[in-house]
Write a structure and sequence with these properties.
444 residues; alpha/beta; 2 domains; eight-stranded mixed β-sheet; 13 helices; 37% helix
């Protein structure tokens, strides 16, 4: 870069900091007037400076910031490979699709093969199973961990079972010892959906490092954000290469954008029914997609990554404050519990309205929303009750009793780092007022 351009770039970066201070002043929380979102972006001038820096490169596809993020996030996770994609949902699609690759030989997933999962889930954890012509086998969940009931794994197993796909619900790790052990015993692939669980640990080891593949989301609601964005992580080089192919149109070539002949024999390959020497950059090994993200998004992620440890601690701190402040309301609510051996990096605080409570879930959430406290249901509730899944090919173990309970009685509130102690106090006051009002009515 010429000296004049570098000088102007430095000046622009300085102005960005001034802009941030003017455009995003700190606002005061006013109980009952200010909203308390369930999630949101937490950022400062670093993210905007990084974003502008990337925009000045005008390298609009995946580039230097993406490579930096992939390298540093893999290091942070403790895995060998990180592959950026344009969303957590795309990460799930890439991970599941990769397991259908002919390069996996007899272990590849084929149409009609079964994948064990849960129906108390976000749709795009399950959708790639159906989109690849596979059969979801739904097991129930346990309360109040909201994760898969591992006692049903044996009943879920069939001669066609080939994989397990579970999410760490709201950041609470599922029973990884049991699930990973079951997968090894039966030679099953294991995919961890960590979109809500970045930084969660199980007996001191990070989630996302137990399975063959793991997925992450960088949507604004999640632990760090790129606006959109996601990633697939793995310790297996062959799986990483297959995932990259599915992400990049299904091509066989692994050259970075703007690079040619990384393999050193671009015009020497003979693959499929193509003539020898057919350009490797236009040779396709898989039925793939274009799921890359832009370098500007990655630039935001690079700045966010420096804050990740602090974000995780803030989520845990907020969880502890709510858990301690809601003591005494157990006659109305079932409060969440971490899986044994787990230290969650909580995404949200799930609560179940007890069947004998004097109010319904809808009454509770309406009461909170009227006080500007955002609530969310636990994703799709029971996915097989959703209209999109009517007529789909799946198998169910048992009656999904707890999954239906979640559909009818569970909601969650936010824990993201932007929630302050004043907001937490107000939230707790609202819960105690809700329960107190019904207790008073009951005494009358």
């Amino acid at each position: 870069m010429n000296p004049k351009a570098e000088q102007l770039r430095a000046r622009i970066r300085s102005l960005v900091t001034e802009y941030y201070e003017a455009a995003f002043p700190e606002t005061r929380f006013v109980p009952g007037e200010s909203s308390i979102p369930y999630a949101g972006r937490v950022f400062d001038d670093q993210e905007i400076r990084s974003l502008v820096d990337a925009s000045l490169d005008f390298w609009l596809t995946t580039g230097r910031f993406a490579r930096e993020f992939e390298r540093e996030f893999a290091r942070w996770m403790g895995v060998r490979h990180c592959l950026l994609v344009n969303s957590g949902s795309s990460a799930n699609l890439v991970a599941l699709s990769a397991l259908t690759s002919p390069r996996l030989g007899e272990r590849r997933l084929k149409p009609g093969d079964e994948v064990i999962t849960v129906a108390a889930s976000f749709p795009t954890t399950v959708n790639p199973i159906l989109q690849n012509g596979l059969v979801p086998v739904f097991v129930d969940v346990t309360l109040p961990t909201y994760n898969a009931d591992t006692s049903q794994l044996e009943a879920a197993l069939s001669p066609r079972t080939r994989a397990i796909v579970f999410a760490h619900t709201l950041g609470n790790p599922f029973d990884l010892n049991t699930v990973a052990g079951f997968a090894r015993k039966h030679d099953l692939w294991l995919v961890e959906d960590c979109c809500d669980a970045v930084g969660s640990t199980y007996f001191g080891r990070k989630t996302g490092t137990f399975g063959d593949l793991a997925t992450v989301s960088f949507y604004p609601a999640h632990h760090i954000t790129m606006g959109e964005g996601g990633a697939v992580v793995t310790n297996t080089p062959a799986l990483h290469k297959i995932c990259e192919s599915f992400r990049d149109w299904g091509r066989d070539c692994w050259c970075e954008p703007g690079c040619d002949n990384t393999c050193g024999k671009r015009f020497d390959w003979q693959l499929g029914g193509l003539p020898r020497g057919y350009d490797h950059k236009f040779t396709y090994a898989h039925i793939g997609y274009n799921l890359k993200l832009t370098d500007m998004q990655a630039a935001v992620g690079v700045a966010q990554l420096e804050k990740l440890d602090g974000f995780i601690e803030a989520r845990r701190r907020n969880f502890r404050a709510l858990a301690e402040g809601l003591v005494g309301l157990e006659e109305f609510f079932i409060l969440p519990e971490a899986t044994a051996g787990a230290e969650p990096s909580w995404f949200g605080f799930p609560m179940a309205v007890r069947p004998n409570a004097p109010f319904s879930r809808n009454q509770a959430t309406r009461y909170l929303e009227e006080r500007r406290i955002a609530t969310r249901l636990l994703f799709g509730g029971n996915l097989i009750r959703q209209p999109a899944y009517q007529g789909q090919n799946y198998r169910v173990v048992g009656n999904l009793e707890n999954t239906d309970f979640i559909m009818e009685r569970v909601f969650w509130i936010g824990l993201y780092p932007g929630i302050t102690s004043a907001m937490l106090d107000y939230m707790l006051e609202a819960f105690h007022a809700l329960c107190g009002s019904y207790a008073t009515v009951g005494r009358r």
